[in-house]
Amino acid sequence: MIAKILLLPILIPILSGIVVFFIPKQLRRVKEALALLATFAVLILAMISFKQVSSYSFNWLGRGMDLSLRLYNFSSFMLLANAGFAFLIILYSVTFMKGKDLLNQFYAYFLLTIGFANGAFLADNLLLLLFFWEGLLGLLFGMIAIGNKGAFKSATKAFIIIGITDLCLMLGIVLTGQLAGTLTISKINLPLNNLANLAFILMMTGAIAKTGAMPFHTWIPDAALDAPLPFMSLVPAAMDKLLGIYLLTRIALDLFQFTPLSGLSTLLMVIGSLTIILAVMMALIQKDYKRLLSYHAVSQAGYMILGIGTALPVGIIGGVFHMINNALYKSCLFLTGGAVEKQAGTANLEKLGGLGRKMPLTFICFSITALAISGVWPFNGFFSKELVYDAALERGLIFYILAVLGSFFTAASFLKLGHAAFLGKLNPANEKTKEVHFTMLIPMIVIASLCIIFGVFNWIPINHLIQPILGTARLEGHNYSGFPTNIVLVMITFIVLILAVVNHLLGVRLKGSALHAADHIRYAPGISQIYALAERRFFDPYEWGLKLVNLISKISWALDRGIDWIYNNLSVRLSYGLSYQLRRAHTGNYSVYLSWSLLGLAAVLVLLVIL
Amino acid sequence: MNYNSIVLGIIFIPVIGSLVLPVIGRASSRLRNILSFIFIFSSFLLSLKLVPLVLSGRTILILKPFALGLNFTLYADSLAVFMACVSSLISAIIVTYSFGYISHYENQNEYYSMVTLFLGAMMGIVFSANLILLYIFWEITAITSWRLIGFFRDKPYVLKADKAFLVTVFGALVMLTGFLMIYQQAGSFDLAVIQGKFRIGGISNLAVLLILVGIFSKSATLPFHTWLPDAGVAPSPVTALLHAAVLVKIGVYVFARIFIVNITPDILWNTIVPLIAGLSAIISAGAALRETDLKRLIAFSTISQIGFIFFGLAIGNEFAVLGSLLYILMHGIAKAGLFLCAGIIEQNTKTKDITKLGGLIQTMPFTAIAFLFCSFSVMGIPPFGGFFSKYMVFSGALATGKLWIVLIFLIGAFMTIIYLFRVFNLVFLGQQNISAKETSPIMVASVTLLGILSLAGGILISYPYQFAQIAASQMLKGL
Fold it and tell me: A516, A536, A556: which is the final residue of a domain?
């Protein structure tokens, strides 16, 4: 296989993205065709190169800053997944975005995003990885900003949060390169000691911020309301998870010698489990279809981070498996959200209801993916969650409990969502609502079917995609596919799911409405105060960060004005004062001048004698 | 043409040309404008002609001895040619922009004469290899920038121009004292002689301190920086020329020329200078967050970014120096773009107060995109040019193990992202308060070009990189 072919998955989308940008408005069909063609070409390329091993290196700047790309099992898997989502979501967008403004920008950013992400997956050089990774930043801003009117505020928030964590990643990469003496990723394997710990934390920050883990998540729910929906479905739901978890896995498996003994492992598990539980609690009380989903996009990232954080093979496999599973069901869920919004005209749950009869196929896709995300057998989410549970339990009971509790709330909130949107009484305004166009249905159906396939035949992804990433040495002969071995854990999962159903029915009976089925938790004593604080953005580190930055800038401003005062006032007064004194010495009196002159002459004489 | 006359041409075509311009301006303003551009652009073309020579490792020395060590010594190495190319290119774009901006003001003869003289003097500084000669050109730039800042003759504007002049000249005099101390020890003002004596160290700390005062006052670094935001009263092309692209880079360049190539100061300064630069970077970034005047805000940003450049140079290893050289290039292009965008906004909306602006992207799309591209470059977002320079400065700094200083600059980099986005949002997005058209075409074309150059600087990084790399390695070898 010709190594240069590796450049194509990067260049095709980028170049076609640039071309699309300049295609005039009237030629909408051409634009869509080009976008479809480009993503399809990338998909074909990804299929051809799947499981191939190849590398391409080109001397770019010297000093180890090479343009080197590497295709091997992990990156080819990521490439394929990315290309698949890209193609399906473009297909969906063709109908969804019809009649919307700024299509040029939408398709251009979309394609560029695909190209840069492929670059990040293929890069075998830390600088190149950073180049592509950070390059996504401007596109992220653009993608959100072209949403509705006030979207630029959410876009700015996303840009600042990701921008700052990307700078952390940059410092981490510099430090790693320094410690390892090379920038070639495949040659780096550092033991975790003092400085390497710092490098790990910095790089990890960049990686988990991308996945949307707490406390770097707060832009996602905001963007959910403002950004174009296909963006949400592609980026925060699928691609960001692929990128973030890909990098985190590379950090944990390849770049550093990461073991369960390391304190960093505990740190990751704490971040992961807190992300699961806190984000899902927020999801539970949302009243907007898309915003509810976006909190789940955060919460699910917690499972992946928890799994990888355990540093156990079973956990890492669970984490990576959960990544691909989540990318599948979460992007499909967003797509169903888009379908509902497009047909019913709103994503506000208070105005929805009974759509299951009007949009049966969308409802079926929703049901499959909702069951999958809740971790119901035999869907894919069940298997990856069980692997993560297994690993979490081995590392500490508390992590397991938090993870299972997360499952309970996940199921509860999807029961609420499904019930409120698709079942119950139909809103009279939606009497004429129809099923969506088939170009929007196909992506949903394909992805939902994959959720079943990855569950029932879970040996396909586990044996072929995920276990090779760890390599035979780490696996020690284990095979993690098939039904979970720990039956007790499976039993507990089932009990928790049943409890979630009971809880939902109880909630509906108490409040008489599906939308308010979680209100008995929402307004429980103790919890309601916390929710109140959360709704006032008390827990949003972005707000705190801005306050801190404001404080710094106030101090700086005071210092700066202080220095300026010295120039504008103090120095002026000093020189006026000095010249005033000197002027007073010039009295015009002849004898005074003569005595000055004599004194001066004497001083010169003294100096001459001494020297 | 032989190389000696090329070097002389780079300096004296604009210097002598500047004296002719006012005379021509009486006859035809169009001819004067074109000639001014030709003088400056010829400096750029001639500098480009030197590139192959210096890249092959050769240098040019012109030496005409005079009494008292006041030799006329010019020296062209890769650092000098790099700097000459960067400043003359940016100046040429800025002059083109002026055709539109200045066209309806008085005193245009003076303006074009001063801008051209300024560029000539800048070239003089770049190629000077004698401290006194350097000082003379240095003061010429001070005088020209005094006239340029005071282009509008209102009383407060003139006062701000005086302030800039007084601060920089005060610094220059202090620096001159430092030069005299060096003369006493080395017996010559010629950098070649000084290099022979002080390359291995042994310079007195007092002399270093005195020279640094001059450098910091010219490059607007804490605590000598406050004249720079005040000078925002100047016409926009002037602010772009002086504050972004050229004037403030003089100090940086002389720092590199004296303290990296020729004199090795005490190891102590490797900590002090980054520390001052770091404080300067953070404090001015903080001030930029509160400022509401568009041009003053960008000026604060310049102070902050100059801190990054000093940081890389003062760290002194090859990679950091290389990063700083690229920083000079990328920041010059991007910051000139920002100032010129500010000029377009100011002329069309008649205000510089960012809280009164908004939504301009609807009516000024090109300006908005150029502003965004230049901002991305200053923030250091790939694929824009600033990414590489920032990465290299950080990378070089970490190699010396000064982690804590790197963290200070990391905060500075965070704040850069925040304040630039604040401006972009306030000016270009949201509700449109003042509606305005996008004129004139030549001004819009200039900023678009700078925006594109910011992007091209990142995508085609390998070309400037190769050049800067040779310059950096020659600097550290002390050629």
Answer: A536
| Best to test chain B binding among A160, A164, A556, A564 (most B CBs inside 10 Å) | A556
Residue that wins the pLDDT comparison between B7 and B202: B7
Specify if A243 maps to a domain.
no
pTM for the whole structure:
0.89
Q: Which residue has the tokens 């400056």?
A: B40
- Chain A residues in contact with B382 by the CB 8 A cut-off are 130-132, 134-135
Q: Decide if A560 touches B, using CB distance below 8 A.
A: yes
Pair A349, A285: CB distance under 8 Å: no
ipTM of the complex: 0.87
Contact A134 B163 (CB under 8 A): no
Within its chain, how far is the Cα of B90 from the centroid?
Answer: 9
In which residue are the tokens 């963006």 written? A231
Nearest CA in chain A to B164: A567
CA A429 to CA A424: how far, in whole Å?
A: 15
pLDDT beneath 50: ranges in chain A: none
Ranges of H-type helices in A181-259: 194-211, 219-226, 229-234, 240-250
Peptide bond into B324 cis (omega under 30): no
> A463: domain range?
259-536
A371 and A430, same structural domain?
A: yes
Q: Choose the closest CB to B286 out of A152, A174, A553.
A: A553
Is the residue at A164 inside a domain?
no
Q: Residues 6 or more apart from B214 whose CB is under 8 A from it?
A: B138, B171, B172, B173, B174, B175, B176, B178, B251
Give tens-digit pLDDT for A532-554: 887 777 777 888 888 888 898 89
Q: B286–A63: do the CB atoms touch at under 8 Å?
A: no
Closest CB to B381 among A137, A549, A556: A137
Backbone angles phi, psi at B293, to 5 degrees: -90, 125
> How distant is the Cα of B353 from the closest Cα of chain A, in angstroms?
18
CA atoms of B224 and B217, how far apart (whole Å):
5
Q: Read off the tokens for A161.
A: 């949060």
A15 lies in some domain: no
